[in-house]
Each structure stands twice: as structure tokens, then as C-alpha cells.
Amino acid sequence: MVVSAWKDEVGVLKEKVRKMLTTPPPGEDNILEKLSLIDAVLRLGIGYHFQKEIEDALLQIHQMDEYHGGEDISTIALGFRLLRQRGYNVSSGGATGSVGQWNVGTRGNKEQHLSQISRFSTAQDDRRADMSNNLVIQSDKLDKPGDTTRIGPVCIGDGPNVAGTTRGSVDLPQDWVMETRGLLNLYEASYLSVHGEEILDDALEFTKKHLKCFLVNDDLPTPVGEQVNRALQRPVERNVEKFEQLKYISIYEKLDAHNEVVLKLAKLDFNIVQSMYQQEMRSLTEWWVDLDFATKVPPFFRDRLIDCFFWALGTFPEPELSMSRIIISKFGQCFSVIDDMYDVYGRIDELELFTEAIERWDGSIEHLPDYMKVVFHLLMELLKQLEEETTKEGRPYCIQYVKEAVKRQIRAYITEARWFNQGYVPKFEEHRAVTGVSTCLYMLAYQTVSMMPEATKEVYDWLVADPKILVASADHARLWDDIASHEFEQKRGSVASTVECYMKEYGVSKEEAHDVIKKLIKDDWKYMNKGFMKEVDIPKKILRIFLGYARVMDVLYGDFFDGYNYADTTTKEMMEALLVNPIPV
To answer: For the Terpene synthase metal-binding domain, which residue ranges apply (predicted)?
Structure first.
């Protein structure tokens, strides 16, 4: 009854928000207001209700040839981030402080762009600079020795602090909070960089340094300080959508400029969708209990159903993809068992037989051990269920693509098993190519896409060619997984990770290998950002899947902690926040 009443109220609130998004249309006189509304709607997790309205508004902004952001870095950076989030190939010159031209192909001299961003450099000898001079361009490099520009408080005085800063304080200009929001918007925008955009890399390092400084000095009012703190912990582009929604609701309601209608809609929508997730989780639990799988296989296999549901929920949280989450969670649990089988517990001769059975695909499994027969039957049953669903929806061709992806997955598993059995430590790039596939992301991509109306044959042909956005997403998963869990995996007897392979090939320490791999992770994000803009013929809904995978990995492993193998202490808390506790309305 409560959910039913909520749904009635949501219908009314949606129409009010829709009117806000469309009336009046974006113009130079209301550009920041419109961008801020769109940003709030997206970060509060209700953007899926207003896809057309948001697309129309951003398209109008993108086409505003005469629009100039002037000195308003907040407007420029926010507009840049929102446009790139939707796949527009806008120039980074505008984001870092140029005139804010949104058109595709805008180019600018790098030194000019550096001089634009340098308006945010600090000057330890110019504390009394007037606010009107804070954003004046006076140098062409960030933090150049002797630089005479500044913005807001400088970290000076009492000794070392975070990120190499030192504690101190200065008098704040009255409208300093607005300038902090400009820095924060630039910080968030910099995570959408692609290769060749060193200006955004510079912006990231600069804004991160100074935002940390402001927190150390405790110079910001509570809601703004909380927003800065949480952004530094997890920027919006690296956060799972539902976590961002939860985080931002708690911040947004404290902001003076928050919109009560938007806030109420976000809270009600979260609770309604949460009730749907609860039903999905109950359905999965009943399936797993009825399957009685645990009594049919050795006890050392991991039960990861909740964690697999977290993956699915984090990647595609939209209510209309409920069946996709259920089926993908089942596949995830099945392949968690298969992964354990190939990684640790299966004998090499048995694994060769299981691989042959998958390659033949004819059901001849009499020669397999009993527990492998159980696993094989589970996989076949899930593929049958997927085939029935996709055929019913008019996409019977999907299942053949998925089966080939499953075979590819198994081939990667057996390659790793042979390496381990032979005591072979591959070269770093050889290992990276094979184990990128064994992350399951290639296979899960085929399965996830199959459940979407946008899954045409053309989309699958594109997937078969291994587009860079898919390769980078899988590589990102492999590298994070290996940094966070390679010691755990070595203890339980797994093949050498990318960390060990790099250490052996190049004769470096673990820490040095980590540094190299973290750089590759950053590169993968740049490839994904580029792919999201480049693949204009592929529906954005499909491209977002790969970004969703990467965000889940960043949340699970981004603090160098293995949130999958140690799920009791991390994933459990996350799932409770999403599935158990409704938001007070």
C-alpha cells in the first residue's frame, strides 16, 4: 500500500520536474540554472525518467554557437562534464576555462589552455589579492615558482598535511564558496579526459590538491565541505550510479539551493526501486535454495550470488532491466563456480574434458566427474532460459553470439590452468590478453546486451570485433583485480597475476609494478571515455554497460581492497545500503 501511494505521488512530481527541464528552454540567461538542474536530476538517480527532456536540453546547449562561458569556470566545467557524459565530443579547452564553445572539433593552443587553467594557481606571497583579481590569468603554467595568481585559501603554516600541503588559513572572500564549486566542477569534469588531453590531467592534479587543502583548513561550510570530501573519495564518474544517488541525496538536501520537488521525487523513486530490487533478490535466493547446488558440489566453491547481484545492479540499475539483472546474476554465480573449478580445485585432466564438452556443445558429459556434470547442467539450463527470453522478444540470433562468448571464456580459463600446471609465468602482455577475457566481462557483455531491445545483429557484429571500450573495460577489471587480490590468489594456488608477471619480466618490486599498472588503469579509463564518444552508431545505453562494469570495479577494488573475495566486510555493507534501508520521506 505504501509503495502504491508513493507511485501515485511520483507521477505528479515527475510532471513538475519535466516542466522544469523544458520551460523555459536553455538560454544564455539561464544556462547555469539549467545545467545545475540537469546535474541534480542525473546524480539523484532519476534521470531515466527524463531521457528525452535531458537530451533535448543538452542538444540545445551544444548548439549554442554564440554561448560564451566567460570567466565562469563552474558553468564551463559543468557543461563540459554533462555533455561528455552523454557522448558529445566537446573540446576540453572550454572545460578548463576558455570561452566555452561546445561545438565538436573545437581546438586550441595548449599553452593558451594552460594559461586559462592557471587562473586557479596559488600565490603564497599574494594572500590579500582582491577577489576580482583571483581569476586573472598571469602565468602559463600550473603552480609555477613565483606565480602571482591565486584562488582562495592557501595551505601554509603549520607543517605537512594531505597530498603535500601544509596547514594554515587566510581570510576568505565573501563569495569564495562559489569559486570552490567552480573548482569542484572542474575536478569532476577532469575525469572525462581522453588521451592527448594533458590539460585535463593538469586540472585534476591541481584541483585535487587544492580541494584537499580546503578540507584541511576547514574553510568550507558544512554541505559544501561534505560535497568536496565525498567527491575526493569517489568522483561521480567513478561511482556506481545507485551509490551516487544515495550519497548525493544526503548532500543535496542540505544545500540552500536545493529543489524540494526534485528531492522528494528522488527519495520516493529510490524507495520504490529498492522494493523492486528486494523482490529480485528474493527471487534469486529462492532459485538458489531450490537448486540445492551446495549439496551437489564440493564445499570449497564460493557462494557469490549476492555479490553477482551487486555487479548486475551496479552496471544496469534501471527498473526496466529487472529480468536482465536476475539472469546475469545467475550466470555470474555459475561462472564464479566455474572460475573456482579452473583456478584452484579442478584437476587438469578433468578441466581438459570439461573444456572439450563446452567446445562440442553436444551434451556428451558421461566422462566428467559428477560435480562437473552438475555445473555443466546448470550452465546449459541458464543458456536455455536466456534463449527463451531473447527469442520471445524477437532476438533469436542472440544466443549463438552468447554461446561463442562462453566458449571463449572457457578457453581463457583452460589456458590459465595449463600455465599453472606447467609452472609457466607468461610475459606481461601475453598474460594481460588472456586474463582480460577471463574476467568474464566479454561474456557478460554478450549476455547483458542480449536482454536489451537495442541488441541488433549490427551491435553484435560490433561486439565480435572487440571494440576498444570493451577491451579497456575488461583490462581495467583484470588490473584492479590483480592489484587488490593477487596475494590472496597466490595463497590459494592460482596462476601468476599481472603483478607477478610484470615483476618477473622487468625485474622490479611489487610497488613499482603497482605504479605501472595503476597508470594502465588510468589509460583504460581514457580509452573508455573516448569509446563512449566515438561509437556514434552504437546506442549509448549499450556503451554505458562498459562504464558500469568499470565503476563497479572501482568501488570494489579502488581502495586496493578485494571487495569480492572479502565480501563480508565490504559488499555486504553496500548491499544493505541499497536493499535494506529505505530513505525517510
So the answer is: 290-526
